[in-house]
Design a protein that fits this description.
CATH superfamily of the largest domain: ATPase, nucleotide binding domain
Strand order of the largest sheet: 3-2-1-4-5
Distance between the termini: 60 Å
Shape: rod-shaped
Oligomer: single chain
CATH class of the largest domain: Alpha Beta
Strand content: 15-25%
Length: about 220
């Protein structure tokens, strides 16, 4: 039988596991022998994290295994670490458990807790705080902008191919000069039914997108 401290915290070491999702997290607790103690569901917002911290405070939690520490479990992982918990990443479910008892949030939470107990969850989550995380997020945003710019430029080239009159005007220009020339056009919206004017309207819109993306990419550099 476990004993309690003066403030009501069990002195028996336990292990926690968390099955993470977009809107809810499900946590489970097992003791040193792997017996299931209890489980509970929490929201993923600040109030939910605080509720989980209060819930965990009932026990002496030796370690917490969290699923998807780089995505759905990222915020919770950060909060747990800030409050002194040792967190390990569970990057894949136990296939034997899935095969015998199926999948459910409580099952996955207890499976994660068992992984913390047995050491199967032995990966230390990446640190997503400080300058490293800032650089990662900025790099991701920049890469997305670069990809979008490439798509837009390909759209311009495809449209130009189908408009011989305009193709002649843009022949031999560098990408930057071509975008600048297209942006300088002032197509007549009242004559959008004309193929040339329609092409100019479409091309100028895409050129504007390229210019915006150029500014965005420059801001990340």
């Amino acid at each position: 039988m476990s004993s309690m401290t003066a403030d009501g915290v069990s002195t028996q070491p336990v292990y926690a596991g968390v099955d993470t999702h977009k809107d809810t997290h499900h946590a489970g607790i097992v003791d040193e022998d792997g017996r299931q103690i209890t489980d509970a569901e929490f929201g993923t917002d600040r109030a939910g994290n605080e509720a989980m911290l209060e819930w965990l405070a009932q026990w002496w939690v030796h370690q917490v295994a969290v699923e998807q520490t780089g995505s759905y479990g990222l915020g919770l992982t950060t909060v747990l670490r800030e409050h002194g918990y040792t967190v390990k990443e569970l990057n894949r479910p136990d296939p034997t458990v899935r095969a015998t008892v199926g999948k459910s949030d409580p099952v996955d939470a207890y499976t994660a807790a068992q992984a913390a107990r047995t050491g199967r969850a032995d990966i230390t989550p990446k640190d997503h705080s400080g300058i490293v995380e800032s650089i990662r997020m900025l790099s991701t945003a920049r890469a997305s902008a670069v990809k979008a710019r490439s798509v837009a430029l390909n759209q311009i080239r495809d449209l130009v191919i189908t408009a011989p009159v305009l193709r002649e005007k843009l022949a031999g220009l560098t990408t930057r000069k071509m975008v600048a020339v297209i942006w300088s056009w002032r197509p007549n919206r009242a004559e959008a039914g004309d193929p040339v004017q329609g092409a100019k309207l479409a091309l100028r819109g895409i050129a504007g997108r390229v210019r915006d993306l150029d500014s965005e990419i420059k801001a990340y550099d």
